[in-house]
Design a protein that fits this description.
With 317 residues, the protein is mainly alpha-helical. It is built from 16 helices and no strands. It has a domain of 161 residues. The mean pLDDT is 94.
Length: 317
């Protein structure tokens, strides 16, 4: 059936003119600034939920692997968050290699917990004359034998990371956090404000890592607490996606609160946010900065204008 006679010619011509553009970052770049605020706000939330569902698909597989243990799943997700993009999946594999009850049993001894995490992340697969390295290496060997654990095949990477993001520091901080708050999964449901979240995620390291980034290289002393921007990353990429999935799973209305919390975080600093701001489409919070990534990658780049709420509005469909 031909729809040519039923489609308004001005809409067809405008759509064709969009498709003929090869020098635009997105096809509707010249018109995007004309969108009403309400349209933008509504579509941002839909886009964010789409992105969230993609992010949380891993939770389902982890839930199956942990026999529906949400505490264990949260620890795995948190580990992935501490590993950032470069070491995220390696940290997640590390967490998967340690049963949750083993984490709890060792949470009262922070150095043992640190040895367990670092050893399972492959940090003791090399040789060092450093006394603390040898002590932790022996502790890991004992714990690995005691709990009959195998180490994952992958090892962590240091390449092009700032010292504060070195896997040694991040794993030491994670160990301290689980030492101080082993029942972190229960605590996260008590937070009411963003400042509550910052307090819950506050952590540091054992004294050795106050003067080291590597086992073998001493450095100037400093307290390795989590910075506010890193806590915001954990909330954005780990805690809030987890809570959204968890509340959806148990049918809790607090799922909607997750979107409100996200709007209280500042937008990320990346090329997507910069470009949309330049096009007159201001990105005002973390929810919108995540949504604009989804928009660009899943609608604009593949030219799915006819599936896009902004495309519909701008084409008068």
């Amino acid at each position: 059936m031909s729809l040519n006679d039923y489609a308004p010619k001005n809409v067809v011509e405008k759509y064709k003119s969009w498709l003929s553009q090869n020098n635009k970052w997105i096809l509707c770049a010249d018109d995007l600034h004309t969108l009403p605020d309400l349209v933008r706000k509504q579509f941002w939330e839909r886009l964010y939920v789409e992105r969230l569902m993609e992010k949380t698909s891993l939770f389902q597989s982890w839930l199956a692997l942990t026999q529906n243990n949400w505490e264990a799943v949260f620890f795995i997700a948190l580990s992935k968050g501490f590993g950032l993009k470069l070491n995220g999946m390696t940290f997640a594999q590390m967490a998967l290699s340690i049963p949750w009850n083993t984490i709890l049993k060792n949470s009262n001894n922070v150095e043992n917990l640190e040895a367990l995490l670092m050893g399972q992340a492959g940090l003791f697969n090399t040789h060092s004359e450093n006394a603390y390295f040898q002590k932790q290496q022996k502790a890991h060997a004992y714990l690995k034998h005691k709990y009959r654990r195998n180490s994952p095949a992958q090892s962590v990477k240091f390449f092009r990371l700032r010292p504060s993001n070195f896997p040694t520091i991040r794993l030491a901080q994670l160990a301290w956090l689980m030492h101080q708050k082993p029942r972190l999964h229960s605590l996260i449901h008590e937070a009411k404000t963003i400042n509550d979240w910052y307090t819950i995620l506050d952590t540091k390291t054992t004294p050795f890592w106050e003067t080291h980034f590597h086992f073998d290289t001493p450095s100037k002393k400093r307290i390795n607490r989590l910075t506010k921007p890193f806590k915001q990353l954990l909330l954005l990429n780990t805690v809030f996606p987890f809570l959204f999935q968890y509340y959806a799973y148990i049918g809790d209305r607090r799922k909607e609160s997750v979107l409100d919390w996200l709007r209280q975080l500042p937008p990320e600093k990346n090329a997507y946010v910069t470009k949309f701001n330049q096009l007159g489409c201001p990105i005002e919070d973390a929810l919108e900065s995540q949504a604009c990534i989804q928009l660009k990658n899943h609608y604009c780049t593949p030219r799915r204008c006819l599936k896009c709420a902004y495309g519909h509005k701008l084409l008068n469909l």
